Each structure stands twice: as structure tokens, then as C-alpha cells.
User: Fold this.
Amino acid sequence: MRSLNVSVIQDALSWQDPAANRQRYDEHFDSLDDNDQKTDLIVLPETFSTGFTMSPWEACEYMEGDTVLWMKQRSQELGAVITGSLIVKLDESYVNRMIWAKPDGGMVFYDKRHLFRFGGEHLHYTSGDKRVVVDINGWRVALFICYDLRFPVWSRNRGDYDIGIYVANWPVVRQYAWDTLIKARAIENQAYVLASNRLGSDPVGNAYRGGSAILDFMGKPIVDCEDKVMIANTSLSMEPLSTFREEFPAGMDCDEFEIRA
Assistant:
């Protein structure tokens, strides 16, 4: 299996301004397009088009709307999967939805399972009930959003993924938890982790210091964004992951469990 070239983008967000945020990421995409090493997968933060808001009726988008169309078009132009979450209006509810836009025009989505009660997200959004694992060039990728990071049962590798992606608007007041838990999820699941968090601040008073990273299957940073605008690029290899799992088969001793909605 060939290596997978991945890119995690860390930047600030313009509050409830999808057009400005699309332009922001277009500039990053242009710089990626100029690189000699073509990327296969681009990871954006949680609610990358608006910021994390408890007023979804003011910031919501639609599956047929501009941002989803933009993701599909840019994915086709770049020849790379683009993923990140946005606020989507359904018939009678709102979801925090992670879009997986593919170069062939196809699309998969994951709705955030764990809603951030401390911030009131559970009062304004509907929780997802389906765990989603997607395929890219033979790699199996599990999709997660922000608060999901705190729930290891939901993230448990059941022998069905090689990469876990966490997209977030995780504020600096809980930065230590973010920095610790992305490592823990990589270690316990013996999987690479791609973690994309935002920078800047929002009108609610939250400050964000990023800490986006690409981690190996032992929780060690391959690339660490720290607290600056940057794109983390690397090439992931399946061979060392497979070898590590064979030599240290911790997954064979996992407890069996059943998740109930």
C-alpha cells in the first residue's frame, strides 16, 4: 500500500462569515497546490466556515449550499479529499456535520455524537448516532469532532481504522486536555491521529491556541503546529503501523462492549 500524504491546516476563523473563511482556506489550498508533493487529504477545523456558535439558526448552511459545493469543487480541482465540519440545517434541526468531500465528486458525512453540554450545544443541535469510518487509497479513517475526543469508548479502534481524525474549536482554557487526549487516542488505538484545531478568538470570549498536530501510533508528534498559522504536511506509511501492531498486539486484549444510543 502506498503512503498517504496528509495536510492539517491551522488558522483563525472569521465569525459567522462563510465567504471570508472559504477565501482564507482557498489561499492555503493554493499554497498546497504549489508544493512538489501532492497531498491526498486536507483536514480543516470544526465549524470552519463560521466558528463554534450556539446560534445555529444564524450561521447554518445547507447540504446544497455554497460551502459544501465549494468543498466538492476544490476537492476535484486539487485531487484530494477535503474534510472539516460545518453547521447544517436539516428539516427541523441542526447538526454539527463533518463533510468528507472526495475528488470523484462523492461525499460522506459524520454528525457529531457528543454535544458539548457545558456550552449548551445539546440544547441547539441534534446528536449523531452513527460511527463513520471511510476509505482513502486503502487507508481506513475514523471521523470525530471536538468533544468526541473526551470519550474513548466512542473512539475505540475495533480493528477497523488506521487513522483517527479530530477536528475542533478547542479553547485555550482547556488546552492541556486537548494536548493530552490527542496523544492518548493515538496510543490506546494504535492509530495515526490527525488533529485540527483553530486559532484566534470569538465574540463569546473564547481564545484558541491551536495545538493541531499529526501524531504517530505511539502518540509522538510527527508535526506539531503549536500556536501559529501553518499547514502541517507529512507522508504516512502503513508499514511501521502494521509492524507495531503485530509486535505489540494490544488490540487483541480489548474488552468487548456495545454502544447504545
